[in-house]
Design brief:
The protein is of the alpha+beta class. The chain folds into 3 domains: 161 residues, FAD/NAD(P)-binding domain (3-Layer(bba) Sandwich); 113 residues, Orthogonal Bundle (protoporphyrinogen ix oxidase, domain 3); 94 residues, Polyamine Oxidase, Chain A, domain 2, CATH 3.90.660. It is built from 16 helices and 21 strands. Strands 1-11-3-2-15-21 form a 6-stranded mixed β-sheet, covered by helices on one side. Strands 17-18-19-16-20 form a 5-stranded antiparallel β-sheet. β4 and β5 form a beta hairpin. The two termini are 32 Å apart. InterPro entries: Amino_oxidase (IPR002937), FAD/NAD-bd_sf (IPR036188), SQase_HpnE (IPR017830), Zeta_carotene_desat/Oxidored (IPR050464). It comes from Sideroxyarcus emersonii. One of its GO terms (molecular function) is oxidoreductase activity. This is Hydroxysqualene dehydroxylase.
Amino acid sequence: MARELNRSPSSPPAPAHGSGSNREDHGLTVGIIGGGYAGMAAAVELAARGIPVTVFESARQLGGRARGVLYNHIRLDNGQHLLLGCYRETLRLIELTGGCTRQDFLRLPLQLDLHGHFSLRAPRLPAPLHLLAALLKADGLSWDERMKAARFMLALRRMRFRLPQDMTVAALLALHAQDADLTLKLWEPLCIAALNTPIHKASAQVLLNVLRDALNRSRADSDMLLPRIDFTALFPQRAAAFVERHGGKVLLSSGVTGIAPNHGGIELHTADGSQNFSRVICAAPPAIAARLLRPLAALTGTVAQIDTLEYQPIYTVYLQYPPHITLPHPMLGLHRRFSQWLFDKGRIAGQHGLLAAVISAEGLHQELEQKELAEKVITELREEFGITETPAWFQVIAEKRATFCCAPDLQRPAQQTALPNLLLAGDYTAGDYPATLEGAVISGIRCAEMLSRQA
């Protein structure tokens, strides 16, 4: 049975412009399929404009692929993500729905630390000087490598971060004489962290879009924001309360099973019955979106684009050590290990002794059983940091289709489909960004803006 999310009694009052007094004037009713970051971003934007929305989420909680999970009475995330200071739309919506980014995040200046092998820390200088200074002072690189990296960034800036033709990141690095050691320590970890795609498969243009926004505008844009609360609480849960304060509905455990155009509107079928809407935003994951759209003849081309997407995994290994166990930094990387990035949840969120190891993109780790993978991470922590204690428990969360493979010249489906009253939202839809929270949020906002213009 569908469950409607309860409104928070302590929620702040709704702003006047969303009071719903003009709700009957525009004639729009919007159904949103999916309560992840894309769907909830669209819902908040529409609700703030006084447009009634109903969100259908098949799971028992919101967040999609960025959601909180409970294990051993401890709040975890299904994957350990971070935000960047340039994620302006995501941060704006968190604030709009009642969050406080100063409290919700541990904010760190740009720093890349591969324990014992490489360290880069950006000083408090205006962009892009902060990055150039960091590159020229980076530990673990020769002077020649530092100069090559700095010249590469200056060349990208002269090009305005636009390529005449897309290519792989590996090809772009070779074109600009970025040698193997420099690539292994700097560009490859950066590419995998940003695009979740290996450099020999990753789109250079999409990486440049991220570098442009994170490193070229203001110093704060490159800051790393590590959430102190789980990803469901961070935005989707607050967004649901915001939507309901503005007269909308958020239905949990209520998956949509069919989409049927009907007399100028769209009927959504669920296990609990059917509802009609004048407009629908499908913000489901790509595989589910393709299944729902496949029966609609007008959307054959869109479904074909979704079907061509390849996927990359993200594995997160959580380990609960005794509370006194800490890492040298809240976040740091390992060089040429199974563990790529480590997060000290005690330093970040007060979950003392809880460490998270993140392994992004395809690799040998996929061939291991979960217990084997956890043992590899435990061994690496012992060898790198001298942690000899045995964790009380471990939990491996494997998102095998975590993101789309961000390949060069990838044709991603547009938000507006061939059916005027049906739109798509999701990090996989057309946009400058790879599969990130900001990409998902921007897609939802675009859908909301398109529908608002029709009001």
